[in-house]
Specification:
Blueprint: E1 6-7, E2 14-15, E3 21-25, E4 31-33, E5 43-46, H1 50-65, H2 73-97, E6 101-103, H3 105-113, E7 119-122, H4 130-139, E8 143-146, H5 150-156, E9 164-167, H6 170-191, H7 195-199, H8 202-208
Parallel strand pairs: 7-8
Antiparallel strand pairs: 1-2, 3-4, 3-5, 6-9, 7-9
The chain binds zinc ion (ZN).
Length: about 220
């Protein structure tokens, strides 16, 4: 384990800080995700993965905080996702202020032609040039990430609707792509059907832990 690594309270394996989300326990015992790592107090770290978040609420967080934690895996996933969306919004706003965004189809085309695109963001309901642009970005070896709807993306960028945006700064692109991966993972964990747990043998785990898992 490298000095800067942290241990996931779910799977208990060590990983880089950037691969884990920090959570803190508030004075009322509430669990608050802290992806920026800025909140005071004792922190625990968890992978944004369904298995790790489930194990965290089953006992990992309580062990780390030496206090009871009343929280379901879904609630943890929802809270983490919400905080990560705020974090991504902050990154997008910072990128816009830094002039590191090309907004709209024409500007994105220019950014692709001049090879300045580091990451392509597309709205989930963007039509038209979306396929063409993401294919062109892919040919440059750059990634494409879905970010909200046209209206949501527009609201972030001070326009009515925005379907496509190119991020031109490599560092900001990496940060936005990374947080987007975690948002998708949190969302998937939240939406995963409960029966999944039983079918993967979690029933036995639950029985061993004394059946404390709420029904
Ligand atoms: Zn883990």
């Amino acid at each position: 384990m490298v000095a800067n690594d942290r241990t996931c309270v779910g799977c208990r394996s060590a990983d880089t800080k950037g691969s884990l989300v920090r959570v803190v326990r508030g004075p009322q015992g509430q669990i608050v995700p802290d992806p920026m790592g800025r909140l005071p107090g004792r922190g625990a770290y968890v992978h944004v993965r369904g298995d790790c978040m489930a194990a965290a609420v089953r006992g990992g967080l309580a062990r780390a905080f030496r206090a009871p934690v009343e929280l379901g895996a879904d609630e943890l996933a929802v809270a983490i996702e919400a905080r990560l969306v705020v974090r991504r919004t902050g990154l997008l706003v910072a990128a816009r202020r830094a002039g590191a965004l090309a907004i709209g189809t024409d500007a994105v085309r220019d950014a692709i032609a001049s090879r300045r695109v580091a990451l392509l963001l597309v709205a989930s309901d963007a039509a038209g040039r979306r396929e063409e642009l993401s294919a062109a970005v892919g040919r440059l070896g750059r990634a494409c990430v879905e970010v909200g709807t046209k209206t949501e993306l527009g609201a972030l960028l001070g326009r009515e609707e925005v379907g496509v945006v190119a991020v031109l700064d490599r560092g900001l692109a990496e940060a936005i792509a990374s947080v987007s991966t975690d948002i998708a993972a949190a969302s998937a964990a939240r939406l995963a059907p409960r029966v999944d747990l039983g079918s993967r043998g979690r029933g036995a785990d639950r029985a061993r832990s004394g059946g404390r898992t709420p029904r």
